[in-house]
Predict the 3D structure of the following.
Amino acid sequence: MSRSEKPEPSRGGPAASRQDYRCWSHDKLRNSDTDQQGHVNHAVLATFFETGRIGLFAGGEGGSPEPGAIVMVVSLLMRFHRELSYPGTVDIGTRLKRIGRTSFTVEQAIFLGEALIATAEATCVLVDERSRRPRPISPSLRARLAAGGGEAPA
């Protein structure tokens, strides 16, 4: 898609407007992020989405969402709307779509200025660090996810 073309409207996926997101993270584009065509590689966009997900439960600081637990992504659907080139800084919007007993789903969007670059939907499972089995989301983590994601828990 050329830079002058507008992306197709979202069809039931993550929102394409900045106003639809409350949790924001930022990341710098690096020359090493580019592929042979000079575009930022799709794998790098997946890393930017990870930066946004971490911001939901860790305030962007990294670390565990709660003691003895880790988050595993079990599904990641990405849609690419525009090409992205070095240099620049991207903004990653993240919001909670759904929260269940052991899992949650987030919707995300990457923007360069006002331009929508990519959207994603990720389903994540809270896993016990030792047993590697799903564990219930605690009330405190549920509240933090809902507050950062901008939606009430189900």
